[in-house]
Amino acid sequence: MSAAAWGPDTTQVGRALDAVRDSVDSTVRQSFDSLRTEIRRRTGVALTAADLVEGGALDRAARGLAGVADSALFDLGGQYLWVGAQGTRRTVGIADPANLLKPIASVELQGGSASTASDAAKGISVTVLAASGVAADAWATALLTLGCRGAWALTEISVVCADSGGVGWSRDLEGRVQVPRP
User: Fold this and answer.
1) What is the CA angle 63-65-66, rounded to 5?
2) Confidence at 26, pLDDT banded by 50, 70, 90
3) pTM over 0.90
4) N or C: which end of the chain has fewer CB within 10 A?
5) Which of 136, 131, 112 is nearest to 47 (CA)?
6) Among 114, 121, 116, 105, which residue's Cα sits nearest to residue 166?
7) What pLDDT, on a 0 to 100 scale, did the predictor assign at position 36?
8) Secondary structure (3-state) at 72
9) For the segment 67-119, what is each residue's pLDDT rounded down to a tens digit?
């Protein structure tokens, strides 16, 4: 995990990040079960706890910095979590499913997490923005199996999807997604 955190006492911020590394939170496991049940009910996709590891780690890191850092940006395997004051934002890249080193778009993250699930063989990627790391991770994983049309059908989920038809996004992300010109 990489992290950039800003706060009045950098020593405290560093100690908080160190403490997060080995933490385990049982309430997160309970929320995994609730989220997995909701996703299965709404999409038919069954997720395992292993599907939510990265998002859970990002959420633990954010909780570990609560009260210590004014803002922080975490990156774990291309999943991002932004914690900051109301109205602050960060732009994060979305990798091309066929070439993870090449961005196909970027999205403005106004808080919470952005998680991308991709399948290079099928040429599809699904990025979900959600309030927590575990929710973004879970929904991105599940929606990848549904494809872009299936992902966009769930209108309350903030989604950027790329496939052979190009890059598209849910209406709530209008003005927040940028696609580079070829």
Assistant:
1) 65
2) very low
3) no
4) C
5) 136
6) 105
7) 84
8) strand
9) 888 888 888 888 889 888 767 788 888 888 888 788 889 999 888 999 999 99
pLDDT at position 21, please?
60
Assess whether pLDDT exceeds 60 at residue 23.
Answer: no
Query: Is the Cα dihedral 172, 165, 141, 101 positive or negative?
Result: negative
Q: For position 22, what pLDDT does the model report?
A: 55
Answer for the pair 125, 94: CB distance below 8 angstroms, yes or no: yes
CB 115 within 8 A of CB 54: yes
